[in-house]
Amino acid sequence: MGPRVDASGTSEHRRALLSNAIGRVVEVGAGTGLNLRHYPAAVTEVVALEPDPHMIRWLAGAAGSASAPVELLRASADGLPFEAGSADTVVMSLVLCSVQDVLTALAEARRVLRPGGRLLFFEHVRSDDARMARWQDRLERPWGWFGAGCHPNRDPVAAIREAGFEIRDLERFDEPYALLAKPHVLGWAVTP
User: Fold this and answer.
1) What global pTM score does this model have?
2) How many domains is the chain built from?
3) What is the C-alpha to C-alpha distance for residues 183 and 95, in angstroms, rounded to an integer?
4) Which of 45, 71, 127, 133 would you call most buried, defined as having the most Cβ atoms within 10 angstroms of its Cβ?
5) Beta carbons of 157 and 125 less than 8 angstroms apart
């Protein structure tokens, strides 16, 4: 998702999401680094993970705009290179649609969070509208070819609950740029 989309209102959603970040943050699938400038003063460190080597270059350029120190690591969501309980916050922003295994990624997030740690998420979800959901199912495969492995018909909110998180806040909305990957959710959850 690029700067033009971010200018359409997504930047405000990022700011709202990240206002709940505290302490040591692990951002999974940091992409081009569009979140980095939105971290609040309560964040002491951001470890930005990205598996794609081409995205890492963009991410490195964005690291200079962060208000907290940023460490870049090439790593994927299904094997976070951290000790258990070593993070205060894990951020997943428009990433659960494209990970190989959503429940494994969320189990890893839960593992690295300290007790009471926060999972912040901004994702698109399967539509409640039956007609749109059918289109999401029909076009899942070709959508993934053009959308870097994106699955428009996933239900990350159900997966977050299934992974054992307690959702504390959840907002559902439509983004003006979204065609098939909509609606979106923004929220945060805690480890029990």
Assistant:
1) 0.91
2) 1
3) 15
4) 127
5) yes
